[in-house]
Input
Amino acid sequence: MSLPDTPEPESASVPSTSIEFCSALVASSGDAIVATTLDGTIVMWNAGATRTYGYDAGEMVGRPLSAIVPTDDVDELHETLELLATGARVEPFDAVRVHHDGRTLDVSVTASPVLDTANRVIGASWVERDVSGRRHVERMISHLAFHDPLTGLANRALLDDRLQHSLERTRRAGGLVAVVYLDLDDFKQVNDRLGHPAGDRLLQLVATRLQSLLRPEDTLARVGGDEFVVVSDRVPSLEAALAIADRLQHALTPPFDFDSANVLVTASIGVAVGDAHAEADRVLAHADRAMYTAKARGGSQVATFATPVG
Output
């Protein structure tokens, strides 16, 4: 008895030439694949580039790749093109591109020279993938690692780093680094009277008011429940550091409007300054000690460690 013939399974048609296959591969890629001349003029733009950047091929072919590059990054693009023109392989890198709608995208880029059959460089290929979502998560994680989640201020880890860098700048440029340590007086009573959510909101308002008095290059950190630290470099003298503390103290004088209550806030403040020979942890410890001196004297005042820490 003979068996019936088994039909051959149907298969998708394969392009008949390698060129057709490569064209299909580029067209179907989810990544943006762009080819340019060595001066950066776009000569090929795939469907993935359209999905990524919002421009179709008809809009982009013939235009410079710099059309989707932020102005500040154009020099870097030209440097990459110059490297590719030599035939050099460029390590994959991160870059920023501009979408058709004006928003910026974080992309990972693999740029390669395009060679002809005689191994001469005739252009450049750019394979780019939108990683904005991943970068956003990475930035959030980094922010949480170095910032206080309640106030958004620097946390202790970032404070230590900023203080160290401030002292290093002082060693190069001279001057002093001021550390101003604030502890809010009787803050527990605010939590007991108004509740912890109200206490948290008050800490946010205090942080905003203090921050408004500082220079952009100064650091304001929250290092404890109701403790804040200011680091300010290029301070000429201890008297100038005390002036910073006085401004912060006066800033807390007006009451905080809180629902139907006016909340008065005072702080015990300690000040220390470090010179070119100071160690970061010693300057911070002396400011902390001065703050406890102010608190022991009844609070709502400023105390100082009398001589520069060195």
